[in-house]
Amino acid sequence: MYSFLDLETTGLNSILDEICEIAIVVYDKDFNFKKEFRALLKTHKPIPEDVSLIHGITNEMVQDKPYFSDISDTILKLLE
Q1: What is the C-alpha to C-alpha distance for residues 23 and 25, in angstroms, rounded to an integer?
Q2: Is residue 13 scored above 80 in pLDDT?
Q3: Which of 10, 26, 36, 69 is deepest in the core (most CB within 10 A)?
Q4: Is the dihedral of CA 46, 49, 55, 60 positive or negative?
Q5: Per mean pLDDT, which range of 3-17, 34-48, 51-65 is the poorest?
Q6: Does pLDDT of 30 surpass 80?
Q7: What is the DSSP letter of 66?
Q8: pLDDT at residue 37 above 90?
């Protein structure tokens, strides 16, 4: 299996930035599509406006979404 992972974050280069979107696509060994997972994630700190201009994700879009810790088990199982 091959998994491709894409993240969007609340900043550009800080270790304190948080993930605000995660996408995973899984293919089998012959590169046949198997699964897709995508989620917007609520963050503990606001997404700065200049960062929202880059990825298009706003604070309003994530306000009712789960935190990363709420879905981390699901992500780990998907990537096993």
Answers
A1: 7
A2: no
A3: 10
A4: positive
A5: 3-17
A6: yes
A7: P
A8: yes
